[in-house]
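It is worth pausing here to work through a concrete case rather than discussing structure prediction in the abstract. The textbook approach is simple: state the sequence, then state the predicted structure, then interpret. We follow exactly that order.
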Amino acid sequence: MRTTRQPLSLRRRTFLQGSALAGTAALLLPGLMASRVRAAAPKRGGHLVLALDGASATDSLDPATYTATYMQTVGYQWGNCLVEIDEQVQPIPELAESWEPTPDATKWVFKLRRGVTFHNGKEMDAEDVVYSIDHHRGPESKSGAKGYLTMIKAVKATDKYEVTFELDSPYADLPYVLSDYHLLIVPKGSDFTRPIGTGPFVIKEFEPGVRTFAERNPNYWKEGRGWVDSIETLAINDPTARIAALQAGQAHFVNNPDPKTAKLLARAPGVKLIDVPGAGHRTFAMRTDTPPFDNNHLRLALKWGIDREEILTKVLNGFGRVGNDQPIPDFDPFFNRELPQRTFDPEKAAFHWKKADITGKIPLHVADAAWTGAVDAAQLYREHLAKAGIELEVVREPNDGYWSNVWMKKPFVGSYWGGRPTADLMLSVAYRSDAPWNETFWKRPEFDRLLDQARGELDPNKRRELYWEAQRMIWQEGGEVIPVFNNHLFGARDNVDGFVPVPVLTGLRAAEQLYFTDR
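Step two, the predicted structure:
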Protein backbone atom coordinates (compact mmCIF):
# COMPACT_ATOMS: atom_id res chain seq x y z
CA MET A 1 0.00 0.00 0.00
CA ARG A 2 1.27 3.46 -0.79
CA THR A 3 1.72 6.26 1.72
CA THR A 4 -1.52 7.41 3.30
CA ARG A 5 -2.87 10.27 1.22
CA GLN A 6 -4.16 13.61 2.37
CA PRO A 7 -7.83 14.44 2.51
CA LEU A 8 -8.92 15.58 -0.93
CA SER A 9 -9.31 19.17 0.28
CA LEU A 10 -5.60 19.27 1.04
CA ARG A 11 -4.38 17.16 -1.87
CA ARG A 12 -5.86 19.12 -4.70
CA ARG A 13 -3.95 22.02 -6.18
CA THR A 14 -4.85 25.27 -4.51
CA PHE A 15 -5.54 27.42 -7.55
CA LEU A 16 -7.26 25.10 -10.06
CA GLN A 17 -4.03 24.31 -11.87
CA GLY A 18 -3.82 20.79 -10.50
CA SER A 19 -7.04 19.48 -11.98
CA ALA A 20 -5.82 20.40 -15.44
CA LEU A 21 -2.41 18.83 -14.88
CA ALA A 22 -3.87 15.67 -13.42
CA GLY A 23 -6.25 15.31 -16.34
CA THR A 24 -3.63 15.81 -19.01
CA ALA A 25 -1.14 13.54 -17.25
CA ALA A 26 -3.82 10.86 -17.09
CA LEU A 27 -4.30 11.21 -20.83
CA LEU A 28 -0.59 10.67 -21.32
CA LEU A 29 -0.45 7.28 -19.65
CA PRO A 30 -3.62 5.25 -20.36
CA GLY A 31 -2.02 3.00 -22.94
CA LEU A 32 0.86 2.25 -20.65
CA MET A 33 -1.37 1.59 -17.67
CA ALA A 34 -3.81 -0.54 -19.64
CA SER A 35 -0.98 -2.68 -20.95
CA ARG A 36 0.52 -3.48 -17.56
CA VAL A 37 0.25 -7.14 -16.73
CA ARG A 38 -1.14 -7.89 -13.30
CA ALA A 39 1.92 -8.16 -11.09
CA ALA A 40 2.65 -11.21 -9.04
CA ALA A 41 2.32 -10.77 -5.29
CA PRO A 42 5.37 -8.98 -3.85
CA LYS A 43 7.80 -11.14 -1.90
CA ARG A 44 10.29 -9.76 0.55
CA GLY A 45 13.97 -10.59 0.35
CA GLY A 46 16.83 -10.99 -2.08
CA HIS A 47 19.74 -8.92 -3.34
CA LEU A 48 18.81 -6.44 -6.07
CA VAL A 49 21.40 -5.12 -8.51
CA LEU A 50 20.81 -1.92 -10.47
CA ALA A 51 23.08 -0.81 -13.33
CA LEU A 52 22.72 2.91 -14.05
CA ASP A 53 24.32 5.66 -16.09
CA GLY A 54 25.07 9.23 -15.06
CA ALA A 55 27.81 8.28 -12.61
CA SER A 56 31.13 10.02 -12.05
CA ALA A 57 34.27 9.58 -9.96
CA THR A 58 33.50 13.02 -8.48
CA ASP A 59 30.06 12.03 -7.17
CA SER A 60 29.18 12.93 -3.58
CA LEU A 61 26.45 11.71 -1.23
CA ASP A 62 25.54 15.32 -0.43
CA PRO A 63 22.14 15.72 -2.15
CA ALA A 64 22.91 19.36 -2.96
CA THR A 65 25.39 18.07 -5.55
CA TYR A 66 23.16 15.58 -7.36
CA THR A 67 23.09 16.29 -11.10
CA ALA A 68 22.43 12.97 -12.84
CA THR A 69 20.45 9.76 -12.60
CA TYR A 70 22.94 7.65 -10.67
CA MET A 71 23.16 9.81 -7.54
CA GLN A 72 19.52 10.87 -7.74
CA THR A 73 18.57 7.19 -7.53
CA VAL A 74 21.04 6.53 -4.71
CA GLY A 75 19.60 9.51 -2.82
CA TYR A 76 16.12 8.01 -2.76
CA GLN A 77 17.62 4.81 -1.37
CA TRP A 78 18.74 6.49 1.85
CA GLY A 79 16.35 9.42 2.11
CA ASN A 80 12.81 10.74 1.78
CA CYS A 81 11.34 14.16 1.01
CA LEU A 82 8.39 15.89 2.62
CA VAL A 83 6.32 15.26 -0.52
CA GLU A 84 6.21 12.63 -3.26
CA ILE A 85 4.84 12.91 -6.83
CA ASP A 86 2.38 10.20 -7.87
CA GLU A 87 1.50 8.65 -11.22
CA GLN A 88 -0.89 11.48 -12.05
CA VAL A 89 1.82 14.11 -11.37
CA GLN A 90 0.07 15.11 -8.14
CA PRO A 91 1.81 15.82 -4.80
CA ILE A 92 1.08 13.26 -2.09
CA PRO A 93 2.38 13.04 1.50
CA GLU A 94 5.72 11.48 2.25
CA LEU A 95 7.42 12.71 5.44
CA ALA A 96 4.81 15.43 5.62
CA GLU A 97 1.39 14.18 6.66
CA SER A 98 -0.56 17.15 5.29
CA TRP A 99 -0.18 20.79 4.29
CA GLU A 100 -2.32 23.90 4.18
CA PRO A 101 -1.68 27.36 2.69
CA THR A 102 -3.08 30.65 3.87
CA PRO A 103 -5.72 32.08 1.48
CA ASP A 104 -3.09 34.18 -0.32
CA ALA A 105 -0.56 31.28 -0.42
CA THR A 106 2.22 33.32 1.19
CA LYS A 107 2.45 30.97 4.15
CA TRP A 108 2.28 27.18 4.16
CA VAL A 109 1.99 24.97 7.25
CA PHE A 110 3.23 21.38 6.91
CA LYS A 111 2.26 18.79 9.52
CA LEU A 112 4.90 16.08 9.86
CA ARG A 113 4.42 12.36 10.12
CA ARG A 114 5.02 11.17 13.68
CA GLY A 115 7.06 8.16 14.69
CA VAL A 116 9.42 8.19 11.68
CA THR A 117 12.97 7.39 12.74
CA PHE A 118 16.29 8.06 11.08
CA HIS A 119 18.76 5.25 10.52
CA ASN A 120 20.48 6.22 13.79
CA GLY A 121 17.25 5.77 15.76
CA LYS A 122 16.44 9.47 16.26
CA GLU A 123 12.82 10.45 15.63
CA MET A 124 12.36 12.98 12.83
CA ASP A 125 10.96 16.34 13.92
CA ALA A 126 10.56 19.90 12.68
CA GLU A 127 14.10 21.01 13.60
CA ASP A 128 15.49 18.33 11.29
CA VAL A 129 13.33 19.56 8.43
CA VAL A 130 14.40 23.18 8.92
CA TYR A 131 18.08 22.17 8.99
CA SER A 132 17.70 20.04 5.86
CA ILE A 133 15.92 22.70 3.80
CA ASP A 134 18.27 25.48 4.90
CA HIS A 135 21.21 23.43 3.65
CA HIS A 136 20.10 24.40 0.13
CA ARG A 137 19.38 28.09 0.79
CA GLY A 138 21.53 31.13 1.30
CA PRO A 139 24.16 32.99 -0.73
CA GLU A 140 26.84 30.33 -0.31
CA SER A 141 24.65 27.44 -1.43
CA LYS A 142 25.65 25.62 -4.62
CA SER A 143 22.63 23.32 -4.48
CA GLY A 144 20.76 22.46 -7.64
CA ALA A 145 17.57 23.20 -5.67
CA LYS A 146 18.58 26.76 -4.78
CA GLY A 147 16.63 28.25 -7.67
CA TYR A 148 13.44 26.59 -6.43
CA LEU A 149 13.77 28.10 -2.97
CA THR A 150 14.33 31.78 -3.74
CA MET A 151 10.73 32.68 -2.83
CA ILE A 152 11.14 31.33 0.74
CA LYS A 153 11.79 34.06 3.32
CA ALA A 154 11.96 31.74 6.31
CA VAL A 155 11.51 28.11 7.34
CA LYS A 156 10.44 27.76 10.97
CA ALA A 157 9.74 24.91 13.38
CA THR A 158 6.38 26.10 14.77
CA ASP A 159 5.77 22.90 16.74
CA LYS A 160 7.64 19.63 17.21
CA TYR A 161 5.81 18.15 14.22
CA GLU A 162 4.97 21.33 12.32
CA VAL A 163 7.03 23.40 9.88
CA THR A 164 5.92 26.77 8.51
CA PHE A 165 7.24 28.20 5.26
CA GLU A 166 6.98 31.97 4.91
CA LEU A 167 7.17 33.20 1.30
CA ASP A 168 7.86 36.62 -0.16
CA SER A 169 4.95 36.25 -2.62
CA PRO A 170 2.04 33.86 -3.27
CA TYR A 171 3.13 30.48 -4.63
CA ALA A 172 0.82 27.60 -5.48
CA ASP A 173 3.53 25.05 -6.28
CA LEU A 174 5.36 24.75 -2.96
CA PRO A 175 4.34 21.10 -2.34
CA TYR A 176 5.86 20.23 -5.72
CA VAL A 177 9.08 22.02 -4.81
CA LEU A 178 9.40 19.99 -1.62
CA SER A 179 9.30 16.75 -3.62
CA ASP A 180 12.62 17.58 -5.29
CA TYR A 181 15.28 14.87 -4.92
CA HIS A 182 17.79 17.35 -3.49
CA LEU A 183 15.56 18.09 -0.50
CA LEU A 184 16.06 14.86 1.42
CA ILE A 185 15.60 15.15 5.18
CA VAL A 186 18.49 14.41 7.57
CA PRO A 187 18.94 14.88 11.34
CA LYS A 188 19.82 18.38 12.48
CA GLY A 189 23.57 18.86 12.57
CA SER A 190 24.42 15.72 10.61
CA ASP A 191 27.12 15.52 7.94
CA PHE A 192 25.66 15.56 4.45
CA THR A 193 28.69 13.76 3.05
CA ARG A 194 27.75 10.71 5.13
CA PRO A 195 23.99 11.15 5.25
CA ILE A 196 21.68 9.53 7.74
CA GLY A 197 18.15 9.41 6.35
CA THR A 198 14.72 7.91 6.84
CA GLY A 199 14.82 5.95 3.59
CA PRO A 200 14.33 2.26 2.78
CA PHE A 201 18.04 1.45 2.75
CA VAL A 202 21.13 2.28 4.79
CA ILE A 203 24.25 3.09 2.77
CA LYS A 204 27.10 0.77 3.78
CA GLU A 205 29.63 1.30 0.98
CA PHE A 206 30.03 4.13 -1.50
CA GLU A 207 32.69 4.15 -4.22
CA PRO A 208 32.09 7.21 -6.43
CA GLY A 209 31.80 6.27 -10.08
CA VAL A 210 31.94 2.55 -9.25
CA ARG A 211 29.23 1.18 -6.95
CA THR A 212 27.03 1.76 -3.93
CA PHE A 213 25.96 -0.97 -1.52
CA ALA A 214 23.05 -0.60 0.90
CA GLU A 215 21.08 -2.82 3.27
CA ARG A 216 17.38 -2.69 4.03
CA ASN A 217 16.29 -0.38 6.81
CA PRO A 218 14.46 -2.77 9.19
CA ASN A 219 12.47 0.15 10.63
CA TYR A 220 11.35 1.66 7.33
CA TRP A 221 8.15 3.53 7.98
CA LYS A 222 6.53 3.32 4.53
CA GLU A 223 4.24 0.32 4.14
CA GLY A 224 4.62 -1.64 0.91
CA ARG A 225 8.07 -0.29 0.03
CA GLY A 226 11.64 -1.44 0.51
CA TRP A 227 11.21 -5.12 -0.35
CA VAL A 228 14.73 -6.46 -0.89
CA ASP A 229 17.30 -7.24 1.80
CA SER A 230 20.12 -5.41 0.07
CA ILE A 231 20.76 -3.40 -3.03
CA GLU A 232 23.86 -2.81 -5.12
CA THR A 233 23.91 0.08 -7.58
CA LEU A 234 26.57 -0.31 -10.26
CA ALA A 235 27.89 2.69 -12.17
CA ILE A 236 27.87 1.61 -15.83
CA ASN A 237 27.76 4.59 -18.17
CA ASP A 238 28.11 2.55 -21.36
CA PRO A 239 24.66 1.42 -22.60
CA THR A 240 25.99 -1.72 -24.28
CA ALA A 241 27.68 -2.82 -21.06
CA ARG A 242 24.48 -2.17 -19.06
CA ILE A 243 22.40 -4.36 -21.36
CA ALA A 244 25.07 -7.07 -21.34
CA ALA A 245 24.95 -7.08 -17.53
CA LEU A 246 21.16 -7.36 -17.62
CA GLN A 247 21.07 -10.19 -20.14
CA ALA A 248 23.78 -12.10 -18.26
CA GLY A 249 21.81 -11.79 -15.01
CA GLN A 250 24.55 -9.69 -13.40
CA ALA A 251 22.03 -6.84 -13.03
CA HIS A 252 18.29 -7.01 -12.45
CA PHE A 253 17.32 -3.49 -13.57
CA VAL A 254 18.99 -0.99 -15.92
CA ASN A 255 18.13 2.48 -17.15
CA ASN A 256 18.42 4.02 -20.61
CA PRO A 257 18.84 1.04 -22.91
CA ASP A 258 19.77 2.16 -26.39
CA PRO A 259 16.46 3.00 -28.11
CA LYS A 260 17.82 1.61 -31.37
CA THR A 261 17.93 -1.88 -29.88
CA ALA A 262 15.14 -1.54 -27.29
CA LYS A 263 12.60 -3.49 -29.34
CA LEU A 264 15.07 -6.36 -29.62
CA LEU A 265 15.56 -6.24 -25.86
CA ALA A 266 11.80 -6.58 -25.38
CA ARG A 267 11.92 -9.90 -27.25
CA ALA A 268 15.03 -11.27 -25.51
CA PRO A 269 14.56 -14.23 -23.13
CA GLY A 270 14.50 -13.51 -19.43
CA VAL A 271 14.17 -9.73 -19.68
CA LYS A 272 11.48 -7.13 -20.35
CA LEU A 273 11.32 -3.55 -21.57
CA ILE A 274 9.60 -0.78 -19.57
CA ASP A 275 8.51 2.19 -21.72
CA VAL A 276 7.16 5.34 -20.00
CA PRO A 277 6.21 8.52 -21.94
CA GLY A 278 7.06 11.65 -20.02
CA ALA A 279 8.59 15.10 -19.74
CA GLY A 280 12.24 14.15 -20.24
CA HIS A 281 14.06 15.83 -23.10
CA ARG A 282 17.40 15.56 -24.88
CA THR A 283 19.24 18.79 -25.60
CA PHE A 284 22.28 20.46 -27.08
CA ALA A 285 23.11 23.40 -24.81
CA MET A 286 25.04 26.53 -25.82
CA ARG A 287 26.69 28.92 -23.39
CA THR A 288 25.10 32.21 -24.40
CA ASP A 289 27.75 34.16 -22.46
CA THR A 290 30.56 32.76 -24.61
CA PRO A 291 31.40 33.70 -28.22
CA PRO A 292 30.23 32.76 -30.77
CA PHE A 293 27.12 31.50 -28.95
CA ASP A 294 26.37 34.96 -27.57
CA ASN A 295 25.13 35.72 -31.10
CA ASN A 296 21.41 34.91 -31.33
CA HIS A 297 21.57 34.57 -35.12
CA LEU A 298 23.99 31.68 -34.62
CA ARG A 299 21.67 30.14 -32.05
CA LEU A 300 18.74 30.43 -34.47
CA ALA A 301 20.83 28.90 -37.25
CA LEU A 302 21.58 25.89 -35.05
CA LYS A 303 17.89 25.54 -34.12
CA TRP A 304 16.59 25.66 -37.70
CA GLY A 305 19.43 23.44 -38.91
CA ILE A 306 18.50 20.24 -37.06
CA ASP A 307 16.23 17.52 -38.44
CA ARG A 308 14.22 16.57 -35.37
CA GLU A 309 12.19 13.87 -37.11
CA GLU A 310 15.34 12.05 -38.22
CA ILE A 311 16.78 12.10 -34.70
CA LEU A 312 13.47 10.83 -33.30
CA THR A 313 13.38 8.02 -35.87
CA LYS A 314 17.04 7.01 -36.09
CA VAL A 315 18.33 7.74 -32.58
CA LEU A 316 15.24 7.26 -30.38
CA ASN A 317 13.71 4.62 -32.67
CA GLY A 318 10.39 6.42 -32.30
CA PHE A 319 10.39 6.27 -28.48
CA GLY A 320 9.43 9.91 -27.97
CA ARG A 321 8.19 12.98 -29.84
CA VAL A 322 9.80 16.01 -31.47
CA GLY A 323 10.79 19.00 -29.36
CA ASN A 324 10.57 22.71 -30.10
CA ASP A 325 13.48 24.36 -28.26
CA GLN A 326 11.57 25.02 -25.05
CA PRO A 327 11.32 22.55 -22.14
CA ILE A 328 7.63 22.46 -21.16
CA PRO A 329 5.97 19.19 -22.31
CA ASP A 330 2.77 19.20 -24.32
CA PHE A 331 0.74 17.64 -21.50
CA ASP A 332 1.48 20.50 -19.08
CA PRO A 333 -1.50 22.86 -18.62
CA PHE A 334 0.80 25.82 -19.25
CA PHE A 335 2.33 24.44 -22.46
CA ASN A 336 2.39 27.18 -25.13
CA ARG A 337 0.41 25.63 -27.98
CA GLU A 338 0.74 28.69 -30.19
CA LEU A 339 4.51 28.53 -30.70
CA PRO A 340 5.23 27.50 -34.31
CA GLN A 341 6.85 24.08 -34.49
CA ARG A 342 10.38 24.40 -35.85
CA THR A 343 11.10 22.02 -38.69
CA PHE A 344 14.31 21.28 -40.55
CA ASP A 345 14.87 24.34 -42.76
CA PRO A 346 18.41 24.61 -44.18
CA GLU A 347 17.51 27.88 -45.93
CA LYS A 348 16.50 29.58 -42.68
CA ALA A 349 19.57 28.13 -40.99
CA ALA A 350 21.80 29.51 -43.76
CA PHE A 351 20.07 32.91 -43.51
CA HIS A 352 20.80 33.23 -39.80
CA TRP A 353 24.32 31.84 -40.26
CA LYS A 354 25.03 34.61 -42.77
CA LYS A 355 23.53 37.21 -40.40
CA ALA A 356 25.74 35.90 -37.60
CA ASP A 357 28.82 36.63 -39.75
CA ILE A 358 30.81 33.78 -38.22
CA THR A 359 33.42 31.65 -39.95
CA GLY A 360 35.02 28.35 -39.08
CA LYS A 361 33.86 25.17 -37.41
CA ILE A 362 31.36 25.02 -34.54
CA PRO A 363 32.60 22.48 -31.94
CA LEU A 364 30.00 20.33 -30.15
CA HIS A 365 31.33 18.40 -27.13
CA VAL A 366 29.38 15.23 -26.48
CA ALA A 367 29.46 11.74 -24.97
CA ASP A 368 26.88 9.04 -24.50
CA ALA A 369 27.09 9.86 -20.80
CA ALA A 370 24.99 12.89 -21.69
CA TRP A 371 22.26 10.61 -23.03
CA THR A 372 22.23 7.26 -24.75
CA GLY A 373 22.60 7.97 -28.46
CA ALA A 374 23.95 11.51 -28.00
CA VAL A 375 27.03 10.83 -30.12
CA ASP A 376 24.93 9.36 -32.94
CA ALA A 377 22.59 12.34 -32.73
CA ALA A 378 25.55 14.73 -32.94
CA GLN A 379 26.82 12.96 -36.06
CA LEU A 380 23.40 13.31 -37.68
CA TYR A 381 23.29 16.95 -36.59
CA ARG A 382 26.60 17.53 -38.38
CA GLU A 383 25.07 16.17 -41.59
CA HIS A 384 21.99 18.36 -41.16
CA LEU A 385 23.98 21.55 -40.67
CA ALA A 386 26.23 20.79 -43.63
CA LYS A 387 23.17 21.25 -45.86
CA ALA A 388 23.01 24.84 -44.60
CA GLY A 389 26.72 25.41 -45.17
CA ILE A 390 27.55 25.17 -41.46
CA GLU A 391 30.44 22.92 -40.40
CA LEU A 392 29.87 21.21 -37.05
CA GLU A 393 32.85 19.55 -35.40
CA VAL A 394 31.77 16.67 -33.14
CA VAL A 395 34.23 16.44 -30.24
CA ARG A 396 33.75 13.11 -28.50
CA GLU A 397 34.47 13.36 -24.79
CA PRO A 398 35.08 10.55 -22.26
CA ASN A 399 32.00 9.25 -20.49
CA ASP A 400 33.69 9.35 -17.10
CA GLY A 401 33.76 12.84 -15.70
CA TYR A 402 31.47 14.23 -18.38
CA TRP A 403 29.14 15.97 -15.92
CA SER A 404 31.99 17.55 -13.96
CA ASN A 405 34.48 18.33 -16.74
CA VAL A 406 32.35 19.05 -19.81
CA TRP A 407 28.79 19.99 -18.84
CA MET A 408 28.56 23.70 -17.97
CA LYS A 409 32.27 24.00 -18.82
CA LYS A 410 32.50 23.64 -22.61
CA PRO A 411 30.51 26.16 -24.69
CA PHE A 412 28.34 23.69 -26.67
CA VAL A 413 27.48 20.31 -25.15
CA GLY A 414 25.01 17.45 -25.09
CA SER A 415 22.69 17.42 -22.08
CA TYR A 416 19.41 15.97 -20.87
CA TRP A 417 16.61 16.82 -18.46
CA GLY A 418 14.20 14.46 -16.76
CA GLY A 419 11.46 17.10 -16.77
CA ARG A 420 9.76 18.60 -13.73
CA PRO A 421 6.17 18.32 -12.46
CA THR A 422 5.33 22.00 -13.03
CA ALA A 423 6.32 24.66 -15.53
CA ASP A 424 7.72 26.87 -12.79
CA LEU A 425 10.06 24.18 -11.48
CA MET A 426 11.46 23.42 -14.93
CA LEU A 427 11.96 27.07 -15.83
CA SER A 428 13.39 27.96 -12.43
CA VAL A 429 16.00 25.21 -12.31
CA ALA A 430 17.42 25.64 -15.82
CA TYR A 431 16.57 29.12 -17.14
CA ARG A 432 16.36 31.59 -14.29
CA SER A 433 19.38 33.90 -14.30
CA ASP A 434 20.67 32.83 -10.87
CA ALA A 435 19.81 29.13 -11.16
CA PRO A 436 22.83 26.91 -10.37
CA TRP A 437 21.88 24.68 -13.32
CA ASN A 438 21.34 27.43 -15.87
CA GLU A 439 23.42 25.41 -18.30
CA THR A 440 23.09 27.94 -21.15
CA PHE A 441 24.08 30.90 -18.91
CA TRP A 442 21.12 32.72 -20.46
CA LYS A 443 20.38 35.65 -18.15
CA ARG A 444 17.39 37.89 -18.79
CA PRO A 445 16.01 40.08 -15.97
CA GLU A 446 12.73 40.40 -17.87
CA PHE A 447 12.43 36.59 -17.93
CA ASP A 448 13.05 36.40 -14.19
CA ARG A 449 10.32 38.99 -13.64
CA LEU A 450 7.91 36.88 -15.68
CA LEU A 451 8.62 33.89 -13.43
CA ASP A 452 8.12 36.00 -10.31
CA GLN A 453 4.82 37.33 -11.64
CA ALA A 454 3.63 33.86 -12.61
CA ARG A 455 4.48 32.45 -9.18
CA GLY A 456 2.42 35.11 -7.46
CA GLU A 457 -0.50 35.12 -9.88
CA LEU A 458 -3.59 33.40 -8.48
CA ASP A 459 -5.66 33.64 -11.67
CA PRO A 460 -4.77 30.54 -13.75
CA ASN A 461 -5.55 32.28 -17.05
CA LYS A 462 -3.23 35.18 -16.29
CA ARG A 463 -0.64 32.74 -15.03
CA ARG A 464 -0.87 30.85 -18.32
CA GLU A 465 -0.22 34.02 -20.29
CA LEU A 466 2.96 34.64 -18.32
CA TYR A 467 4.30 31.13 -18.80
CA TRP A 468 3.45 31.28 -22.50
CA GLU A 469 5.55 34.41 -22.86
CA ALA A 470 8.40 32.81 -20.90
CA GLN A 471 8.40 29.86 -23.31
CA ARG A 472 8.30 32.21 -26.31
CA MET A 473 11.39 34.04 -25.02
CA ILE A 474 13.29 30.76 -24.64
CA TRP A 475 12.14 29.58 -28.08
CA GLN A 476 13.28 32.81 -29.73
CA GLU A 477 16.42 33.72 -27.76
CA GLY A 478 17.47 30.83 -25.53
CA GLY A 479 20.55 28.66 -25.85
CA GLU A 480 18.90 25.22 -25.83
CA VAL A 481 18.42 23.17 -28.96
CA ILE A 482 15.75 20.64 -27.88
CA PRO A 483 15.23 18.23 -30.77
CA VAL A 484 13.24 15.55 -28.94
CA PHE A 485 11.26 14.64 -25.84
CA ASN A 486 12.19 11.08 -24.98
CA ASN A 487 10.24 8.21 -23.51
CA HIS A 488 11.89 6.79 -20.40
CA LEU A 489 13.15 3.29 -21.14
CA PHE A 490 14.28 0.64 -18.65
CA GLY A 491 15.18 -3.01 -18.83
CA ALA A 492 14.44 -5.52 -16.08
CA ARG A 493 14.74 -9.24 -15.47
CA ASP A 494 11.38 -10.93 -15.85
CA ASN A 495 11.33 -11.95 -12.18
CA VAL A 496 11.48 -8.31 -11.06
CA ASP A 497 8.29 -6.27 -10.68
CA GLY A 498 6.80 -3.29 -8.84
CA PHE A 499 8.01 -0.44 -11.05
CA VAL A 500 5.75 2.65 -10.76
CA PRO A 501 5.58 4.73 -13.98
CA VAL A 502 5.66 8.44 -13.17
CA PRO A 503 5.93 10.86 -16.14
CA VAL A 504 8.56 13.09 -14.50
CA LEU A 505 11.97 12.06 -13.13
CA THR A 506 10.94 8.53 -13.96
CA GLY A 507 12.52 5.59 -12.17
CA LEU A 508 14.44 7.46 -9.48
CA ARG A 509 12.49 5.64 -6.74
CA ALA A 510 12.89 2.20 -8.32
CA ALA A 511 14.99 0.86 -5.43
CA GLU A 512 12.15 1.06 -2.91
CA GLN A 513 9.55 -0.16 -5.42
CA LEU A 514 11.11 -3.24 -7.00
CA TYR A 515 10.74 -6.77 -5.68
CA PHE A 516 11.37 -10.30 -6.82
CA THR A 517 8.39 -12.45 -7.80
CA ASP A 518 10.10 -15.83 -7.38
CA ARG A 519 11.48 -15.72 -3.85
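Step three, interpretation. The two ends are 20 Å apart (CA to CA). The longest strand covers residues 152-159.
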